[in-house]
Design goal:
Elements: E1 2-8, E2 13-19, E3 26-33, H1 46-66, E4 70-75, H2 77-81, H3 85-96, E5 101-102, H4 105-114, E6 126-131, E7 136-142, E8 145-152, H5 156-163, H6 172-182, E9 191-194, H7 198-204, E10 213-217, E11 220-223, H8 226-238, H9 241-247, H10 258-272, E12 276-279, H11 284-293
Parallel strand pairs: 1-4, 4-5, 6-9, 9-12
Antiparallel strand pairs: 1-2, 2-3, 6-7, 7-8, 10-11
Helix pairs in contact: 1-3, 4-11, 8-10
């Protein structure tokens, strides 16, 4: 059976199709559109309505072509906050014939945790962090127990706007000081998964000469040491966005905020004392599909 999930975030729209049989699920289609831009304003702009409408129609056509039997549509921070979110959700339902589920930040964290439990051996504590356009979730847990989670009311859109200088560059020193002061984290974990970036890191690793070793978990092919991850973030900060877009042509708009998002991941990895940092393609969607198939 084929199951599709569409994740509508503050900045991006992500479309997944999974083949679900006995045993592990198989991702057979993934597309991320990082230029939807619902934003963090009071209302979702008309142009964001139009762009989302076009992409949802594309996703629907692909689902029909693949013979998808189940579809779940999720909304996160932008749809939690925008005054005209109900109007946006009606548009989504008109196109897809499915009512979007606008999930809380707590449920977003729970799905994030569930997306990693199948790959973790018993008795090993891990952390996983996901940053979106409007919020950030950090979870700590074991294979059978979500121990705790942190939720931060900022994402890459807010941080980029707050620390963008008049010359168009980011004030990195001020951003780092802000993250140090604003993120109170009491838990520790040797292992942390940083979500949604493995494909990106794989493609840019050669031109940016990144230093890492072979990952030790299935489908996690890259393992950064703390120094290696710090070097990766510093290289992102120094590389012009136009150059990053050439390295990542599949979704060039993703590069607009990547250095800010990875700076958050670095700050969190330091705070939790992680010694092994795994770039991951997993995210909350993997938790959703586990729930749908249980």
């Amino acid at each position: 059976m084929k199951i599709s999930i569409i994740d509508i975030g503050t900045q991006s729209l992500k479309h997944y199709i999974f083949e679900v049989k006995k045993g592990p699920k198989k991702l057979i289609h993934f597309e991320r559109y990082s230029d939807v831009g619902l934003g963090v304003a009071e209302n979702i702009a008309p142009e964001a309505f139009q762009r989302a409408s076009e992409l949802l129609s594309v996703a629907l056509a692909r689902n029909k072509k693949e013979g998808v039997k189940m579809l779940k549509v999720l909304g996160t921070e932008a749809l939690r906050k925008a005054k005209n979110a109900p109007e946006f959700c009606r548009m989504v339902e008109d196109i897809l014939s499915v009512t979007p589920e606008v999930i809380s930040q707590e449920k977003e964290a729970l799905y994030l945790y569930k997306g990693f439990v199948n790959m973790i051996p018993s008795k090993i504590q891990f952390a996983a962090v996901n940053i979106g356009g409007g919020s950030t979730e950090l979870v700590f847990g074991y294979k059978k127990d979500l121990k705790s989670f942190n939720k931060f009311p900022f994402g890459v859109k807010f941080l980029k706007a707050k620390f963008l200088r008049s010359d168009g560059a980011i004030d990195w020193d001020s951003l780092d000081k802000y993250l140090e002061a604003e993120m109170i984290i009491n838990e520790k974990a040797d292992i942390i998964f940083v979500t949604g970036i493995l494909h990106f890191v794989e493609l840019i690793s050669s031109p940016l000469k990144l230093s890492f070793t072979q990952g030790t978990f299935p489908v996690h092919t890259i393992l950064f040491s703390p120094d290696g991850f710090s070097d990766y973030v510093q290289k992102l900060r120094r590389t012009p966005i136009d150059e990053l877009k050439k390295m990542y042509p599949k979704d060039p708009a993703f590069c607009d905020n990547i250095a800010v998002g990875q700076s958050v991941y670095l700050a969190i990895a330091k705070k939790v004392g992680a010694t092994e940092i795994f770039p991951s393609n997993n995210d909350l969607t993997d938790g959703v599909i586990e729930e749908m198939c249980s």
